[in-house]
Specification:
about 325 residues; mainly alpha; f41 fragment of flagellin, N-terminal domain; two-stranded antiparallel ribbon; rod-shaped
Length: about 325
């Protein structure tokens, strides 16, 4: 009769320890087979983790820059839409104003003024647009809407024009209100920053800045003509019917001439959009390359892991079988 070298309690302890060890190994192998990556990276790389750390850092940086590029692309698209709204409103109002100025025109001055007020509200609303609580046309003061509302602008302009004695004085007061350094537009109507917004880093030493402000000369000119058209029928202005009609024609021509400036801003913005799109593609390719390099470092041999997993499963099943048979032993069975 064979004499066991260890007692029942010791044997039970050994079996439990083997079961835990095999279960842990099976968990590791299952993870490697399912993820394709080694469970113990440090052991797989023999402790040489510097290359992996460099890749992870580069991946994180590329992800941050990619996020910044996506945000810049969104901002640029919103700004492009806002400028398009300004352009379309000015175009429509110019056609109406020229119709008023034409002898026998079918559009009256009050209707022109009403359309101009709507266009002015739409322009200001577009230029006060924001993205993620950042005003897009406010320069380096993105926490505030860059322009006062249309009612405030018209009230201030009406006051500035009220004291003008004739058409020439009205035109001079209009120019002073919008164009004079430190004038009412700069000091009261425009509330954004005097500096440009910060540029966005796109990596590889490249930055892009969306530096169009609501007080840009091209945008200011369109707002100026639109605001004057909104007051064209105002009784406080010292203008005759003929002078009002002549002024309407002048405003229509100014609005059409000002389209070139807005188109120039949109082209400038389009160039920035193209650079952002190119950077997004470059950063996407960079992230893909880095991900492949990282995978090469930490990838597991799936075939070897699957083979080892099958072996561990067999060992674990055999251990459970032995344990079960041992548990069924009794003195009667031993003596029989």
């Amino acid at each position: 009769m064979t004499v066991q070298s260890i007692g029942d309690l010791a044997r039970d302890f050994v079996q439990r320890r083997q079961a835990v060890s095999l279960a842990r190994e099976m968990g590791r192998l299952t993870q490697e087979v399912s993820t394709g990556q080694v469970a113990d990276v440090a052991r797989h790389l023999s402790g040489h983790l510097a290359p992996l750390a460099d890749i992870d850092r580069a991946l994180a940086l590329a992800e941050v820059r990619g996020g910044a590029a996506r945000l810049a692309a969104t901002d640029a698209a919103l700004m492009q839409a806002s400028l398009g709204r300004v352009q379309s409103e000015a175009q429509g109002l110019a056609e109406t104003a020229l119709s008023v100025s034409t002898t026998g025109g079918t559009v009256s001055l009050p209707l022109l003024a009403e359309e101009a007020r709507g266009a002015l509200t739409a322009m200001i609303g577009a230029l006060n647009g924001n993205s993620a609580d950042r005003a897009l046309f406010a320069g380096d003061r993105s926490d505030v809407a860059p322009l006062a509302d249309a009612d405030t602008l018209l009230a201030q302009l009406r006051t500035a024009l009220a004291g003008a004695p004739d058409q020439a004085a009205v035109s001079a007061a209009l120019d002073a209100f919008f164009d004079a350094p430190g004038g009412v537009f700069e000091s009261t109507i425009y509330r954004g920053g005097a500096g440009s917004s910060a540029g966005v880093s796109l990596g590889a030493g490249e930055t892009v800045a969306l530096r169009i402000r609501a007080d840009d000369a091209a945008l200011r000119a369109q707002i100026k003509s639109t605001a004057m058209a909104a007051l064209i029928a105002d009784e406080s202005l010292p203008l005759s019917a003929a002078e009002r009609q002549e002024t309407a024609g002048m405003l229509g021509r100014d609005l059409l001439a000002g389209q070139a400036g807005v188109i120039g801003l949109r082209a400038q913005l389009g160039s920035a959009e193209a650079r952002i799109a190119a950077a997004e593609s470059r950063l996407g390719a960079e992230r893909t390359s880095l991900a492949i390099a990282r995978n090469d470092l930490v990838s597991a041999d799936i075939y070897a892991a699957a083979t080892a997993l099958e072996g561990v499963q067999f060992q674990l099943e055999a251990l459970y079988t032995i344990t079960a048979r041992t548990a069924r032993l009794n003195l009667a069975a031993f003596l029989s």
